[in-house]
């Protein structure tokens, strides 16, 4: 639900980069979205369409790659990959797991003009 | 703009610290302390240095000088910068003009970025954390859905502390200063941030509010986030401790439905426990569900209306405060020893 402000942060980073790297147009924005990043991809895409008009990214396409979520299991004390936020540990079946990876959204690269 | 929750950049964020004093305003563009460097860092093209360009166009008072207010906090994108509509310290965000474009080249190429999308918020959060540590102030970020009892818990807490610990409160709500007024009625200073259509507080807003809430070392700053079980989870404000509240009226399965708001909590407070006999809430199930999504969080029960559990909560707070101050003191001693040894 905070996807819109995430998209504004994304634009900030793009504009920072544009000043540093000297480009005037962005064609593709590639993101890596962790499975446990707490974002809804459709809302993120919608938010990007909403914020990009009138900016350097007005023609940009958003390409999103999802990265798996990992978690620390308090029972078997290992880092495991979880299919779902509420899945039990695949190794020991324990329920006390704390997301440890795939919790953020990274801007990987831009294709620019 | 956001069809899901109405969260939008068009909303105006305002800040009201509840005290009104004369505010001198040098002509547009003067009296700003931050330089081009800070603008760069915060993603604003070096702009013409006028208030209009900074989204400060909504100033209702003709005179205002940022430097007089210690606005040394680096401003972020000034389209989100505060405009002061309801008094000198009422910050109004999101009224700025369109973002600027950078001139550039025409050749298609790849630019690697590899940055977290929240890197800007995180930079402000780091700044807040450093300021708080330097001042020896313990900050708590209180998260919960609307109506879980965040303000009631705070009001009762401040009454019980009765000034024994210096405290201040930042209140985040989309609209109204009702909560800040409830806090001020206890004699404690409060800044109200109205996020407009924003669904969470961010570190930039909190940084501005901090400027209005000086606290002595050992002070405790409570930041009551916008009532929302989803969005505030993603935004680090620079707090030392994250406290998530859930009232027993909300249902045992809420931790499973909204895990993100719980999973980084240091403490989960189950509020309104005095209502359990009327609701039949399964407290054991509720706690099991919390442990599932927040295995390391401590869980406490309070009924602020009756005072139940308040002593345990205050003990937790005092212990955390002592631990925090000792850790800061140790760091300072280590640094002092290093400096002496170098001398």
Question: How would you summarize what this structure contains?
Answer:
The complex is a heterodimer of chains A (113) and B (343). Chain A is an alpha+beta fold.
Chart the SSEs and their pairings.
The complex is a heterodimer of chains A (113) and B (343).
Chain A: H1 3-21, E1 26-34, H2 41-51, E2 61-67, E3 69-73, E4 78-82, E5 97-101, E6 105-112
Helix pairs in contact in A: 1-2
Chain B: E1 14-16, H1 36-41, E2 83-84, E3 91-92, E4 109-116, H2 119-135, E5 138-143, H3 150-161, E6 167-173, H4 178-184, E7 189-194, H5 203-210, E8 220-224, E9 241-247, H6 254-257, H7 260-263, E10 267-271, H8 276-279, H9 283-293, E11 298-301, H10 310-342
Parallel strand pairs in B: 5-8, 5-9, 6-7, 6-8, 9-10, 10-11
Antiparallel strand pairs in B: 1-7, 2-3
What do you see in this structure?
Chain A is built from two helices and six strands. With 113 residues, chain A is of the alpha+beta class. Chain A has a single domain (3-112), classed as hypothetical protein PF0899 fold. In chain A, strand 1, helix 2 (41-51) and strand 2 form a beta-alpha-beta unit. In chain A, helix 1 (3-21) crosses helix 2. The model of chain A has no long low-confidence stretch (mean pLDDT 93). In chain B, the strands form two sheets. Chain B has an eight-stranded mixed sheet with strand order 1-7-6-8-5-9-10-11, sandwiched between helices. In chain B, strands 2-3 form a two-stranded antiparallel ribbon. The longest helix of chain B is centred in the C-terminal third of the chain and has 33 residues, at 310-342.
